[in-house]
Structure formats: structure tokens, C-alpha cells
Amino acid sequence: MPPTRPRIERFSPLAAAPAPTYTGAAPCAPGSMPNEPPSPLLEAADALRRPVESRLRPGESIRACFQPDLDDALRYREGLVVLTDARLLAVAGPDAVREWPLSEVVSLRAADRGGLGWLEAHGASGRLCAWSFTVVRAGRARAFVDAFGRQRDGAAPETVREEAEVPEAEAHEPPAKIGLLLRLMRFARPHLGHVALGIALTLGTTAAGTIPPYLTWPLVDDVLAPYQNRVRDIREDATLDAPRREARLADAREQARAPFSRVPLFLVLMLLSALATWALGWAQGWVLARLSERVSADLRNTTYEHLHRMSLEYFSTKRTGDLVSRISSDTDRINNFLSDTLLDFITDVLMIVASGAMLFYMDPWLAGATLVTFPAVAWLTLYMRNRLSTGFLHGSRAWAEMTSILADTIPGVRVVKAFAQERRESQRFRQANDRIVALNDRVNRLWTFFWPMVALVNQLGVLVAWALGAWRVYDQHITVGVLTAFLAYIARFYGRLESMTRMAGSTQRAAASAQRIFEILDRAPGVPEPAHPVAPGRVRGEIDIRRASFRFGHRQVLDDVSLSIRPGEMIGLVGPTGAGKSTLLNLVCRFYDVSDGAVLVDGTDVRSFPVSDYRRNIGIVLQEPFLFYGTIAENIAYGRPEATRAEIVEAAKAARAHEFILQLPEGYDSIVGERGQTLSGGERQRISIARALIVDPRILILDEATSSVDTQTERQIQEALDNLVRGRTTIAIAHRLSTLRGADRLVVLEHGRVAETGTHDDLLARGGVYARLWQAQQKAPEGQGDASPVPRMSA
Amino acid sequence: MIHTEALNLHVDGFGRLVATLPDGTTRAGLVPVRCFPLADPERWVSLCDAEGREAMLLEDPSALDSESRRVLLDELARREFVPKIGRIVRIAGDAEPTLWEVETDRGPVSFTLPTEDHIRPLRPHGALVADSHGVRYRVEDRRKLDAHSRRLLEQYM
User: Fold this and answer.
1) Residue A426: helix, strand or coil by DSSP?
2) CB nearest to A175's CB, from B94, B109, B118
3) A13-152, what's its fold?
4) Contact at 8 Å (CB) between A155 and A255?
5) Which of A11, A453, A573, A703 is most buried when burial is the number of CB atoms within 10 A of its CB?
6) Distance CA A706, CA A715 (A)
7) pLDDT higher at A29 or A55
8) In A631-643, which positions are buried (b, 16+ CB within 10 angstroms) versus exposed (e)?
């Protein structure tokens, strides 16, 4: 039994893009010897290839190969099915070879559902064999079936599958392998001046903060301690009587006047350093807050811009609330981190280094001995860091979950109210919130245990310093002044260390947020820009769809569709729901890229055009026109903001929108969109037609443009559309077949394939799918407006 | 409405699932589909023809005679491919999409996970992972994974 071979896909960051993958049957050069490249057999493992090679008869040539990746028990295991000009061979292992002469094989069928595909060979009296494969290989299985069909029909084998040169896509830089927070540095680069100033100010603040404890040393050793000792000596001198003692004390006071005169100097110095620390700290805080505000704004802008380069496919798999929370709250967390935590962190590190240096300068032996607890704290922090980062990541996710509920229910509030489910939605929100609380509780439990622990360890360090310091004083190695300053530094050292470990929390929170931001930024755009762009300019509007296939998840939405459209021609797309009509439009607009085949405009692959230059040639009218918050004039001029008032009015007139706009109190300046003027469906639709008209597109896409309105309004819209269609290449989808009577040609799609093509009369005469649909609609009573029971062919 | 008890299922020489109704009529080439593969996999099995139109709906397949039931379960097993993940070996790639290397009950495999939203938590402790091709993988009980696998998976849930 050969070892099971796992299916290994080559990993590349571009894998998300519907990259043009090779799904054809392995091309076979007819007559080529099996061991001669480019024999398709070479792709197969030795154990599978050899049995075939050894069984080939002289002169027998291989037509096609297919490698199922599952065995009969649906376990991952490579197999091999080979079609020669005489036989069908199946290899499951070195000794498990079955073969059938082609005369026995009546048909070969491939199908797939839910990620699993199967290929079956049927004979005259029953099934000969069946193979299973994952959907990854479905395209190859179909190509194998096609090759079999050609072989049986005696057609010449397709030596090399006609494959359009796939234009090379712009390379997307793979993410750098450095820490997430360090990657934020990229956004600090434009503000290097600020950064340098911030660092200089931080250094100054730290230096100023290190001075006061240092001044206590001479204050104690040169001024306070000698005087105190003298006073004590006099008081404890038993040989002196009271009056003499008083005299001696007065003497001592007199003599101490000189050293004590230095005290104001020390105090002034301390005051100055405090003032300097304050002023520098202020400047430093301001500079860094400004910096972080700009960095996080840049981060938001960059992320949002990058989001707009994603394909529709990306947005259909991501929840709106999640994206909103990434761009709003995650960038804000990073902002907080940069302005507060990072500042404190740098200050703390500098303070720790400075205090540590001072400690070693004053008494290396004592410093070394008292800092033994430091590694323990460092280890503890490191250990906690990992535990915390996972916790915070989960917290961020739960937060996004909550925003998703908001983004889901607020636009859908009519449904919520209609079904009286307010209580349930509140409950759902409450549950999401409870989850946030529970996750945060978990992190907090860990967290709150951690920092008192660090405080305790630090207290122990100070204790050790006291004990050893006392001993060193006793041993006459150091003076009390040194010990005082030493203790001031060590308290500072551990204090800073403690605040640094407290920061581990917000640092990890920021790191988790940074990860969520970079998840967007690192993602290759789904519709990549070409590496060698061809400027489309103003296209003529000739569209050539060549053997286009499109797969969405495990569904084959379009299967080998070919269609040529002349410039200025109007095509009506007809077919039942799910036939792939909208997908075909999306491919033409390049919202998605084909899985296989190509879409050519004016003879050039659309993947060669810069995306936005190409789309400037396209105008779209959708079933549910989306208007943005803004005035009607702004909405009409959306695709061409520089349009003049005259052009806007002209477009509105052509779209039959001018009159109703004039009825609104503020005319063209009325606010529409969310929170704006309420417009009817037909009115919104006519504004969207004006919006498409004003860009004067060469290619026009009408996706159910009239299906959401009543027949009366439809008539008005139809007039508007007639203006729009004139002279442009148009592809229209409509469920009311009557609205497509102006089309030059009708294309009927069924199950992702072109079923029929022709004019209305041709198709009626043919009596096929279209004729049936037409008759069904004619029987239904017309003219009852929106509620008419016209059989809807598409949703 | 067809009474499930009166229905007979068998597989013909072409490997097609054939249903014989009480009146003797037969429907061939049926594909069984579970209506609630996650919520109620044992009941509500629909028998569809090749075009996906439903021929009959069995609310409770356990009411079939034992031979028909065996045929139905065999056919379901042949049509369903959701490998159960037993161990996650490693997940490569810091940014989405990520490459997963896992061990399943169908053997070891690697796949590409497009976004974290392609992992759907299943109540109470399961998960359903859909790869870039739409092949789905199932984790029956996250708690029963080894610590390493669980930690990797939890990062995405």
C-alpha cells in the first residue's frame, strides 16, 4: 500500500485572488511517447505512472489523464485515470490497475456537490467504475470528460487547450516578518522630525528626573550627617555639665552655618530639575500625542484605502461590523498606545537604565546584589505577555461580534419591528456583550494577579537593598548618604519596572489591534492591478467573453460561457434564478476575475487594464439603487464630480428625473440617502440612471433596473433607459421579458451555461427554454403593477 | 404524501439510487440530500433528481425497511465529504489567507483558509471550516483536540 499523499497547495499570498488556475485536462501531445515530456503522466507519482507505461501497447497514445485525489472510502489518496486512443485505464496502486476497451465505455460523467466530486464510467449494461475527488479537481474532471467525448466522436484531440495568455498581475509584497508593533514604524516615517524631537525631549526629561536623588548624597554626607554626629557626641558627652553643653551646642550651630549655607543651593537645584522635568515632560507629551494622532490617522486612511482595493468577494465574506470595528476602535487603541503607553515605556526604559547605571556607579557590589530579583520579574512579564495577547485578541473579536450585531440589526430594523423581535435582538446584543465581559474577566483575572505579584517581588528587592545596605554601612564600605541616595534610586528603579510591567497589558492590547489592522493591509487585493498596464482610454465597447468559467466557493456558477458582443449592441440576459446572469455582469465589470477563460474588451484582456481606468467606461444601473448621503446633484455627479450644473440637469432630464426633483422643496440641493429625503423606488431608480448617464459610459450594465417598480413607473424608467441605451454596448438583465424586446439579441443562461441565443422571434420559433418562459409570462395577467403575479424568473 | 414505510430503495447496475413507490412506479438516479446536515442530520432527507428537483422528502428515514435504510445511508456516505479534523499540525502565514496543515479522518491534508470568517462555530463545541475551494472540514469537539491544535484553532475563533 503506498503512503497516502497529502494534497499540498503551494502557498502564496496571492492565493486569495481568484488566480487563474490551470484547470484544463492535462494536455497530451498525440503520439508522444509516455516517458517523453511534456507527457501528462509526469505529473503523477512513479507508483501510479509505471503501471500505465508498462501496459501501453506500441503505437497507443495517451489522450488525457485525470488524477482523482480520493479513494473509494473517500480518504485522501492519489489515483490515476488515463484515456488512450484505445482504452480507459484506472490505477489505484502498483498492482491495482483496471482497464476497459473504449468500445465498452458508453459514457463518462462528472459532477460535484458540496466539495465532493465524482467521475463515473458507464458501460452498456451498468456502471464500470466510479472515482471520487475533491472539488479542487472538478475542472480537470470535466476536461477529462470533454476529452473522452471528442475521442468517441472521432474529433481531433485538442492538443493544447486554447488558453488565453493570462496577463501578469502586479506583485503584492508579502508582509515583513517583524513584530507587529515594530511594523507601525512604517507609519512614523513621514514624521521623522517629530520622532527625533520626541526622543530628545524624552532623554532630557529622564536626565532631569535623575538629578534629585543624586543631590541627596552630598546633602546627607557633607551637611546633615556630620552635624548630627557632632550634636549627638556633645549630648552624650557625660563629662559636660548643662551650661557647657549648651555652649558647645551653640558653638556647633555656629560652625555648621558654613556647610548649611549650601542647603539652599541644593534646594534650588532640586527645584530647577523638578521644573525642567515638568517643562520637558509637557513638551514631550504634546509632541508625542501629536505624532500618535497623525500616525493613527494615517493608519486609518491607509486601511480604508486598501479596503477599497478589495474585490466584492472580500466584502461578501467579511461582516460590515467587523471591518468597521477594525478601522475605528482598533486604530484608536493603537493611538492610545502610541501616545500614552509608548511614551511611558520609553521613559521607563531610560529611567531604568539611568537608575541602574547610577546604582552601579555608587556601589557595584550592592547594586549587583540587590538586582537579583530583576530576572524573575523579566521572566514573569514575558510569560504573561503571551497569555495576555491571546486574551486581548479574543476580546477584540468579541467586540467586533458586538458591532456586527449593530451593523446587522440597525439597517434591518424594519424587519425586526415587523416581526416584533425587539426583545430577541436585545437579547442577542446582551449575549454578545456578556461574551465581552466574560472574556475580559478572564484576562483581568490573569492580569490583576500579575501586577501585585510584580509589586511583591519588587518590595523584596527593596528589602534586600535595606538589609545589604545596612550591612555595608556597618562594614564601613559606604556612608549613610550613599545608602540614602541608593535607596532613592532603587525605589525608582523598581517603581519604573512595575509601571513597565503594568504596561504589558496595553501593549498587548495594541499588538492585538495591530494584528487586526495588518490582516487587512497584508491582504492582496482580490482584483489585482496589472503588472504591465494597458491604458484602455475610451473603449469602443466590443466585448468578447471566451470560455469563461467562474467558481464561487464550491459552486460552479459559470461554466465555459462564450459570447461576442458588437459595439453598440444590446444584449438581454435571460434565465432562471441562479443561472449566473449577475455573475456574468460582474465579470464584465471586473468585480471578480474569471476562474478560467477570459473577458476581452476591444480585443484586450480586461485584466490588462488598470481597474479604475477600465471601470470609467462602464455605467451601472442596479435593481436597488444605492444613493449616498448628500444632495441629489452630488449623487447624480458621483461618477464625475467635475460635471457642470448644466450637465447634471441635462442628465436628470434624459433620465426623466428633472420634474420630480423640482417638486422637492430644495430641488437639486435636497439631501437624499440615509437620514435624507424619502424618495420612492422609481424616483431613486431614475436618479441612478442619471448617475449612469452623466459618465457617458461605453458599456452599460442594467441589472434588473426596472424590477422593483410598478408598471406605470416602469414605463417612465423605460423611456429614461431608452435614452441611456442609445449607441452604447448594453447588457441587461430583466425578469419581465417584455422589457427586453428592444434587445438586439437575447442570451438564455441555464445552469451556468448558454442554453440559447437569438432574437425574440427566433427564440419563440425555436420553442425552447425562452419560449416556455415567455408563454408563462403571457398567461399571467399584466398591468397590475408591483403586486402582479408575473412569474419572477430572478430575484 | 408518500408513507416512508412503503418506500423501497435500491441501487441499480449503473450505480443509480432507485426508489420504488407503493404503486410500483420507480424513480431512478436520485441523490439523497440532508436538509439539516448540522442541526438534524438523521432526519429530513430529501431525494432529488439530477436537476436538483425534489422527488420526495423523507421526514424520518428510520421508518424505512432495514435494507432501504442501509442503501440510503451508504449513498449519503458516498455523497458527503466533510473530513473531521483530529489535529492541526501547523498554520502558516501571519496574514490572511493562511495555509493550514491538518490531520483528518480521511488522511492528512493542507488547505488555504481565506479569512477567519470562514470558520463557523457550531454549538455547543464544534467548528466548521471552509477552505478556499469550498471544501468543508469539521471539528467535532474543540475541547477534545490536543492543546497545541486547540490553541491554534482558538486564535481564529
Assistant:
1) helix
2) B94
3) PH-domain like (2.30.29)
4) no
5) A573
6) 9
7) A55
8) bbbbbbbbbbeeb
How far A71 CA sits from the closest chain B CA (Å)?
Answer: 10
Please name the member of A11, A322, A554 whose beta carbon is closest to the beta carbon of B92.
A11
* Contact A177/B at CB under 8 A: yes
CA distances from A296 to A102, A185, A403, A514, A538 (A): 68, 11, 21, 11, 39
How far apart are alpha carbons A700 and A719 in whole angstroms? 16
Q: Domain locations in chain B? A: 4-79, 85-154
Identify the CA nearest to A689 among candidates A657, A655, A653: A655
Amino acid at A27: P
> Nearest Cα to A85, choosing from A101, A105, A63, A108?
A63
Classify the phi-psi angles of A783: left when phi > 0, otherwise alpha if psi is within -120 to 50, otherwise beta: left
Residue A671 CB-density burial (10 A; 0-12 exposed, 13-18 middle, 19+ buried): middle
Q: How far apart are CA A94 and CA A51, in angstroms?
A: 6
Every domain of chain A and the residues it spans: 13-152, 182-521, 541-617+700-708+729-795, 622-696
Q: Does A135 touch chain B (CB under 8 A)?
A: yes
* DSSP 3-state of A577: coil
Please check whether residue A169 is in contact with residue A607, taking contact to mean a CB–CB distance below 8 angstroms. yes
Helix A263-307 with A342-362: angle, nearest 10 deg: 140
- The dihedrals phi and psi of B86, each to the nearest 5 degrees, come to -100, -25
Is A120 near chain B, with CB under 8 Å? Answer: yes
Query: Please, which residues bridge with residue A672 across strands?
Result: A630
Residue pair A631/A638 in contact by the 8 Å Cβ criterion: no
Domain spanning A622-696: which CATH class is it, in words? alpha beta
Cis peptide preceding A38, ω within 30 of 0: yes
- CA–CA distance, A119 with A111 (Å, rounded to integer): 7
pLDDT digits (tens, 9 = 90+) for A640-693: 888 888 999 988 888 888 888 888 878 888 888 765 667 888 888 888 888 988
Q: What is the pLDDT of residue B50?
A: 77
Minimal C-alpha gap between B25 and chain A (Å): 21
pLDDT tens digits along A704-723: 877 666 777 777 777 777 77
Question: Shortest Cα distance from A775 to chain B (angstroms)?
Answer: 22
- Dihedral sign computed on CA atoms, order A591, A593, A598, A603: positive
Question: Is residue A174 pLDDT above 70, yes or no?
Answer: no
A752 to each of A550, A601, B54, B104, how far by Cα in Å?
A: 9, 21, 20, 33
Query: Model confidence over A29-42: pLDDT tens digits?
Result: 333 333 433 455 65
Q: How far apart are CA A443 and CA A390, in angstroms?
A: 9
Q: Number of Cβ pairs closer than 8 Å across A and B?
A: 122
Q: Which top CATH class is A182-521?
A: mainly alpha
Burial of B141 (0-12, 13-18, 19+ CB in 10 A): exposed
pLDDT at site B103: 92
Touching B: A residues 761-780, CB under 8 Å: none
**Look-up of cell digits 477552505:** B131
Q: Taking CB atoms and an 8 Å limit, are B134 and A115 in contact across chains? A: yes
CA atoms lying within 13 Å on the CB side of residue A190: 9
Same fold, A13-152 and A182-521: no
Fold for A541-617+700-708+729-795, please state it. Answer: Rossmann fold (3.40.50)
Contact B79 A113 (CB under 8 A): yes
